[in-house]
Amino acid sequence: MTRFLLNGRPVEVETSARPLLDALRLDLGFTGTKEGCGEGECGACSVLLGDRVVNSCLVPVCQVEGESVTTVEGLAVGGALTPLQRAFVDLGAAQCGICTPGILLASVALLREKSGPSLDEVRRALAGNLCRCTGYSKILEAVLAAAGKG
Predict the structure, then answer these.
(1) Which residues in the chain are classed under CATH 1.10.150.120?
(2) Which residue of 5, 8, 43, 113 pairs with 129 in a disulfide if CB–CB is 3.0 to 4.6 A?
(3) Where in the sequence of the chain do the CATH 3.10.20.30 domains occur?
(4) Contacts for 19-23 with beta carbons within 8 Å, 24 or more apart?
(5) What homologous superfamily does CATH list for 83-146?
């Protein structure tokens, strides 16, 4: 068994070389993390492993033993949206929902590292996340708004 913290709670799944993405969705029922390309190119499956953003489709579940994993379901506290999530809602940055969880987590990692990022820093931080619906402007606006720069 592989044991790790998922959104602050201890979990365990059968140890294997299959992707963390599959364990999250199929074994643990955390379906906010999406499969896009399955090749680590689109960012739809992004989660936080500790404080860093990883593509869960590329991380074997056996490699998260003892680690802390955060999915989009772990962001809201007590059902209350975070300022970042609220900015996405208020500014229309979320469209179909496939890319949004990964973009939120990449944004969380950025804002933890740098509380007042520039537009270029936000662009760089989100470069690994592809979105086909919004054209990115609303996403960038939402991240900057959550950082107090919007």
Answers:
(1) 83-146
(2) 43
(3) 2-74
(4) 19/56, 19/57, 19/58, 19/59, 19/60, 19/61, 20/47, 20/56, 20/57, 20/59, 20/60, 20/61, 20/63, 20/64, 20/69, 21/45, 21/56, 21/57, 21/59, 22/61, 23/61
(5) [2Fe-2S]-binding domain (1.10.150.120)
